Known about the structure:
Structural class of chain A: alpha/beta
Helix content of chain A: 10-25%
Strand order of the largest sheet of chain A: 3-4-2-1-5-6-7-13-8
Shape of chain A: globular
Low-confidence stretches of chain A: none
Order of helices and strands of chain A: EHEEEHEHHEHEEEEEEHEH
Number of helices of chain A: 7
Largest sheet of chain A: 9 strands, mixed
Distance between the termini of chain A: 59 Å
Oligomer: homodimer
Amino acid sequence: xxxxxxxxxxxxxxxxxxxxxxxxxxxxxxxxxxxxxxxxxxxxxxxxxxxxxxxxxxxxxxxxxxxxxxxxxxxxxxxxxxxxxxxxxxxxxxxxxxxxxxxxxxxxxxxxxxxxxxxxxxxxxxxxxxxxxxxxxxxxxxxxxxxxxxxxxxxxxxxxxxxxxxxxxxxxxxxxxxxxxxxxxxxxxxxxxxxxxxxxxxxxxxxxxxxxxxxxxxxxxxxxxxxxxxxxxxxxxxxxxxxxxxxxxxxxxxxx
Amino acid sequence: xxxxxxxxxxxxxxxxxxxxxxxxxxxxxxxxxxxxxxxxxxxxxxxxxxxxxxxxxxxxxxxxxxxxxxxxxxxxxxxxxxxxxxxxxxxxxxxxxxxxxxxxxxxxxxxxxxxxxxxxxxxxxxxxxxxxxxxxxxxxxxxxxxxxxxxxxxxxxxxxxxxxxxxxxxxxxxxxxxxxxxxxxxxxxxxxxxxxxxxxxxxxxxxxxxxxxxxxxxxxxxxxxxxxxxxxxxxxxxxxxxxxxxxxxxxxxxxx
Lengths: 256, 256
């Protein structure tokens, strides 16, 4: 009988000091031994980016019963790669990322550093979950997430996930949540993405911003539908991004 | 009858001076009017990352008949977003990215800035293609790619691509190519990813590196299989990353 406690790797993209990470740590600490390897500052929008051209450093922040916290100069994906290969005593049973300050529903999954870390865990064969809250406030209220975080993480620790599948979990920013919906990612698009910025030499200079449009607001099986109605959305995300049905449609390329 | 020439947006992640970008520009220049918006220096491994916290600048590099070249301080995704909203006179007919110095087959599609730009084009509803060569050499020989680039880009300009599908095209680093295979991405994994680096204050400091393992070397329908045998690999990539079949398997989460 294996009596060892589960080993959980925790990271995020808002940085080691973010409220969302520390709240998530409190929520999952009773589920196992937790090692945090998180960026030393915010890395929002870092997607699956890695650091190929400068060295990456990490250092111990804090160590207490069942919890060890490190910070890292790299991206969320770097954090996972470093922890797996240089820090953890064995392959962890679970990778969790978040709780992100800001949602990662629909196509935002592509830009998300929170989900980048989750993809990395999944690529390494480890059950991996990203948690995000639909509020970007630094002092956002994460309290309603707790029972869902504990039960989803506990369920995944117990039963695992399908091969090459990870979870993108988003929470509405509400005091009371209505339950969970297991759904697909909505089709959506970002627009009006740039705001002109003054520049001392009049260079063309812009801040990235944007507004999001749900392209299928009527569909009742999407993450955005669930979130807008007060449900926690759980999207199982696949690592095989092949458009399988399109292979046959594009076989004519082989005639070139 | 619309007699306007096609409008093509070209970008990459190796930077505006990279040989691969300039070779690709030569290969596609006869297919339409080309606007280049590329990073001002290398951005390898930038995936779909964006620049949310500092301003992004762009400037004109060169303008000649049918070709306009800009450089940008942001990521490949920023380049596409900026070009679409601030620079191009209309929505382009095609987004191309590359030719990357280094392959983006199998799971490398997740880390690739080349493919990040392609994902962004596809998210905006534009037929989008990433081209990569299995050689990281700055002076790599791209000449064998030319007929394939022209025919694949020409075919996509003419017939488009399935909705929410883009192409990840990889070329073996060979003088003679055997043809095209339309395939799926291979399952693979990176390992041995860190090399310890000396640090003046003995901090824990590492360079990211790694070796790649094909987890299904026998499968004959993958990009790695095709590339290892001298074929150009074309993987149609989907933007809906929902693991559709897993939704039913994970409906029990709704009981929480």
